[in-house]
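Long-time lurker, first post. I've been practising inverse folding by hand and with some scripts of my own, and I keep getting stuck on stretches where the structure tokens seem ambiguous. Below is the full token string for one chain I'm working on. Before anyone asks, I'm not after the true native sequence, just a reasonable design that respects the backbone. If someone could post their per-position residues I'd love to compare against what I wrote down in my notebook.
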């Protein structure tokens, strides 16, 4: 059984829902939700409201801590390569492994092994 986690929403305990209320008659309190998994804030918040509350309080600090973008990020032909493949929903088969350049629309065929290798991120890294 997985461990229960608490919602990281800073106001989670303030939302009045039936699943947040705890205690006996005359001694009731609202408390933060506890679940084995959450769907918001990367699996750390129970709702979009809690995700928004967390971001309003900590978002600016998080961006500054992990690295604020100070110049535009550019996609050039050299770094626009992406791995792709075709999938047949009827037979559930994958095939036609390839690199596709999202800017030039160029396509280069690769093997399934090359596709599954995380070290190969562009066609220049393929050794023949």
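-- Answer (accepted) --
I ran through it position by position. Result:
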């Amino acid at each position: 059984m997985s461990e229960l986690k608490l919602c990281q929403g800073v106001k989670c305990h303030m939302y009045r829902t039936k699943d947040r209320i705890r205690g006996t008659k005359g001694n009731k309190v609202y408390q933060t939700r506890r679940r084995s998994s959450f769907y918001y804030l990367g699996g750390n918040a129970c709702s979009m409201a809690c995700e928004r509350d967390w971001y309003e309080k900590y978002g600016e600090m998080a961006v500054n801590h992990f690295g604020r973008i100070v110049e535009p990020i550019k996609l050039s032909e050299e770094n626009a390569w992406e791995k792709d493949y075709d999938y047949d929903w009827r037979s559930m088969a994958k095939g036609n492994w390839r690199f596709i350049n999202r800017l030039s629309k160029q396509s280069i065929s690769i093997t399934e092994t090359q596709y599954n290798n995380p070290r190969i991120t562009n066609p220049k890294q393929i050794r023949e």
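A couple of notes from the structure itself: The CA atoms of residues 1 and 99 lie 40 Å apart. The chain has two domains: 5-66, 77-125. Happy to go over any region you disagree with.
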